[in-house]
Each structure stands twice: as structure tokens, then as C-alpha cells.
Amino acid sequence: MIGAVARAATTADVFNAVAEARRRQILDVLASGEKQVTAVVEALPISQPQVSKHLRVLSEVGLVEARSDGRQRLYRVNGRRLKPIHDWVSNYERHWNERLDRLDTYLHELQHEEKHDDDKS
Amino acid sequence: MTTSRSGSATVTLPSDREIVITRVFDAPARLVFEAWTTPEHVRRWWGTEAAPLVVCDIDLRVGGSWRYVMRDGGGEQGWHGTYREIGAPHRLVSTEVYEGFPDAEALDTLTLVEEGGKTTLTVNVLHATHENRDGHLNSGMEEGMQKTLDRLEELLRSLA
Questions:
Q1: Under the phi-then-psi rule, with left for phi > 0, alpha for psi from -120 to 50, and beta for the rest, what region is B110?
Q2: Mutation for A interface: B45, B59, B109, B151, most A CBs within 10 A
Q3: Considering only alpha carbons, which residue of chain A is nearest residue B129?
Q4: Structural domain boundaries enclosing A73
Q5: Which pLDDT does position B143 carry in this prediction?
Q6: Cβ(A57)–Cβ(A81) under 8 Å?
Q7: Contact B25 A104 (CB under 8 A)
Q8: ipTM for the complex?
Q9: Same domain, A43 and A14
Q10: B36 with B44: CB under 8 angstroms?
Q11: How many domains is chain A built from?
């Protein structure tokens, strides 16, 4: 009854990439600005190899972009790749807003009818 | 008729597996529950003129089933499930299967909290997928996805 919004599931899509809590945390850390992998490791209770593994998944789907600056490797979020998720949530929210607005209107009608019945009795 | 609450429903994704929909209504919980669980009422608001509910079966008892079918220009879409817990007028727990994805069963919990004549409706949809993810066990520790999305929305705006 919730109205699933259909979308194709692939192993390489952004939805799957952000379904992992740690990867969302990494995106959160990177959302405040470009960082080296060591800065990400410091912000999270996981090891550098684990962070690197997650960064690789995020990079593969384009959510994170890396560039070299001298000897440093810097990672940043590519917000545009999150748009499908944002759109999906917005869509879902709009869908539910419309439905619950109709319920709201209907509840007003019901209350009006009840009041009317009370007045008659 | 529109009310001042029009468009005020919010959708949040508090964990890997959940979707939470919240909305306040200017009506007692009793009435909201009735409107949510009685076919003659559900038919009036669940579907639209363009996409009406052509099936609305509700067997409101623990173990009883429900099924909704909506018909629009593109064909029919169905949802069904079984009632697990009925605590009228404040709580209703049921399973939900979208018939387009029959293997993906979710658990829906409707909560109605009444205060001062207003009722806050919350629907928590708990999906079975991603259940083995770290996020499930650590859900109390992780930041909500909504928050992530909010921040990333800001980021999107700054990039635009």
C-alpha cells in the first residue's frame, strides 16, 4: 500500500553505493570539503584499507571523485551523481503528499458529516 | 478543498531499511484509523480519479489479509499483505508486498498519536533488503540518510 517506486537494481548504481551506512558516513565527511584519505580515516572508527575499499566503490559509481595534488590524493563528493536519489525521495514524498492531502480533505468531510449528524440528533 | 496542512507530509530515510512518512491531521485518531482501515473510506482517498482503486479488500483482524489494486492508463498495480497487529485506533502493523516485486516484502507500522484534537500519523516501512548491512546493527549510531541528503542537497545547490 506504500506504492513502491520501481527502479532497476544494478550492482553499480548510486542507490546500492549509498545503501551502505559507512559509505554514507564517508559522503558526510567529504560533504564538508575535499579531503585526503587519512582525514576520512580520522573521522571514522574504521581502518584505512576499509575506507579505501568504500572510496573505491563510491568512485566506481561516480559519487566520489579523486585528484592528485602533488603527492597527495584528494577525494571529493560529486553531488550531481546523487541527484537520482534525491529525485527518487522527492518523487516519493510528492506522491505521499498528494495521497495524504486527499485523506486530509476526506477527514474534514467525515468530521463535517459527523457534526451534521450530531446536530440532527 | 485544500487545508493549511496541504503538502506537509515528510519522508525520511532513518536507516538502510526504513522509509518513514509523517503527517499531522486535524482529526481524532479514531477517525484517521477508520479512514485508513475501512474499504469504503480508503477508496475515497487512496486512489485518484485518474488512477482509482479497483480492488480494496480489507480483512481487519490479526492474520487477515488486505489487497489494493490501482488502475491507471498504464495498467494495474497491486499491493497486498497480512495484518500482524491491530491496536485501534493507535497502531496497525501489516506486511506489504508490491506485486511488481513479489519477493520484496516490507513491514508497515502505522502509528497515530492524538494530542489536542490533532493526530500525528507515522508510517514506518521496514524493508527486508540490506538487512545484513552494518547500518542495521549500528542504526542508533549512524546519522540519518535524510541528514546526508539535506547536506548533499546544499552541495547540489552550490554546484548548480
A1: beta
A2: B45
A3: A19
A4: 2-77
A5: 38
A6: no
A7: yes
A8: 0.74
A9: yes
A10: no
A11: 2
